[in-house]
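Below is how a single chain appears once it has passed through the pipeline. First comes the sequence as given, then the structure the pipeline wrote out for it. We keep one example in the README because the format questions we get most often are answered faster by looking than by reading.
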Amino acid sequence: MYHGNHLAEKLRAASLGAESNLFLRNHQTGKDISYRAFFANAERMAKALVASGVKPGDRVAVQVPKTQAMLELYVGTVLAGAVFLPLNTAYTAAEITYFLTDAEPRIFVCDPNCKDELSAVAKDAGVAEVLTIGADESGSLPKRRDAAVPGFTAVPRGPDDLAAILYTSGTTGRSKGAILTHQALASNAQTLKESWHFSADDMLIHALPIFHTHGLFVATNITLMAGSSCIFMSKFDANEILDYMPEATVLMGVPTFYVRLLEAEGLRKASANMRLFVSGSAPLLAETHSRWRDLTGHSILERYGMTETNMNTSNPYDGDRRAGTVGFPLPGVELIVTDPATGAPMPQGETGVLEVRGPNVFAGYWKMPDKTAEELRSNGFFITGDLGRIDADGYVHIVGRGKDLIISGGYNIYPKEIELVIDDLPSVVESAVIGVPHEDFGEAVVAVIVAQDGVKISAKDVSNMIKDNLARFKQPKSIEFVQALPRNAMGKVQKNVLREAYDGVFQ
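Resulting structure:
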């Protein structure tokens, strides 16, 4: 029974009466999983959690490989009225210590290969029990699931009850736990399902990690809410994705997916049956957008979201998907641009801080009331920290993070503006622009560039090519070349790493 469970009820509704339909094709095991089997397992997971002492509101922390069992645990946690807390699989034991100490979960589920090391960490953090899920779908928790009798009456939850906590990537300061309610997750998935025209006829290629908003709360939730099917891949593999495309309809990915797929043979033919390509989690280069459209005939749909808000904007399904923009605010979501210093609304076309309000917005930061009050206004607007503008046609442009703003000689410099000029050079693959300390200017502009393979290009060449397109104060005072830009698990460039690397370049 799912009655009264806000999120689980909505995730289940579309497949009622169609339980024999395919939900998940498990690439790792080669097995097909029906909606009936998936939800039966999720109910058993809920029973196993309750048997382990999990009560409504308790946290269930999870650091395991991408598996069907992890998805079942997600839905089972929600059914049990508990709070799902997925953790990046790249986190070390030292990092896990912080999350377990901060979130105080009742249960911690980890990879069997890491159990010995992480059990000690969990014990020190006061975690009651450590269970396991392995990459091959085995482990102590799947054993308990299989031993449980099917059927579970969902613990009643209201729209404002917690469903999940997602920790921010923590590139500056300590990582914050964003509290996500049943309403925030359910409403956003419903909006995206409608905006992107998802139906039971769709087959999604799911190659994203599921410890993150994109793979879990966008890709998985939409699939469930539409009664669609998905091809569940443990990781990205360009050739395998091309093999799947003829039977699929949608791919969700990060920009790196599309760059690598463009290098693979057979993309044009393989993509003929597809109806939608979605990109997010990091900016998509305009060049990638146009190359993809020229080769496949499809325009990639770029959208904008955050850990704290799920998705905020999207380029239109029907209409002009403009490269370099993230489209319009989603239905029910308000987006404004405000002055970084005063918080006052900015005129259209001006750059400022993006603020969003809507049912998708999180309820605050876990055990951080001061930080919550600082970033979540009393009128419901969340101060994203992202810099952006809204053009005359209403399209939203992301200029960068507030912390990436460079103030040099008293001038505000937006890195994205310089990056666009540099990225447009024929010999450049991509760039990242940062500000580093400078004795005279306070901060000075440094451009870090990835050049095309086999192309010889110097800092002087770049300076000469961009000088007519940028005001003098915006032009980089140092130009550095690297083989690749540092990125996190979701493909975002880690500018904090670059700032540290080039901190003393002007000394």
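The longest helix spans residues 35-51.

See the next section for the split statistics.
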